[in-house]
Amino acid sequence: MALSARPQPRQRGLETAEKVRKAALRLFAASGYAAVSMRDIATQVGVQPGALYNHFPTKQHILKDLMLSHMADLLAAWDTADFPDETDPIERFVRFHIRYHLERADEVFIAYMELRSLDAENFAIVEAERRRYETVLADILNEGAASGRYHIDNAKVTTRAIIAMLTGIPAWYRSGGDLSKEEIETLYLNMVRKSIAPEPTDNPGNPDTGDRMA
To answer: How far apart are CA 211 and CA 152, in angstroms?
Structure first.
């Protein structure tokens, strides 16, 4: 007897859950979490509102799932990012971060702008994953400072400042504009490098001669 090609219940359930995620992602990014209802999401998916509760008990669960998925994908992508071995660590991070986030504007918007919409317990869970990513950059900065390659006053503050600056790009970047993605990467990389450049030191072999008589 031929096997049925119809999806099995578990497979259908996984497919529906993924449709719910994608619909919620679009709606949250377009209208904001607070303005979107479970009914709105169900309409987008093409199911009755009650069907959503088989996959996500509340809208809050959907938001947490989207944010944790974003962070998991981000960390996994960093672990497999391919750059030449001689690439300076800060260049590796800046270029990776910009490339990854420019391809995921909706995910980035939700991951940063809707943190305020998480309840306290879910915020703590998501924040722990965000700190894991921040640690990647903080370690780069601390190791670079120890070797004299970079100068930083506070690794935690510098880390958050750099990430905030880089993460803001998707909010204004539009393809087809005056700058290519590669040019944006280079401009931002130069700004980051200048912000952590070692402080100049006095050169005893070249004393100031400003008061020397002609």
So the answer is: 34
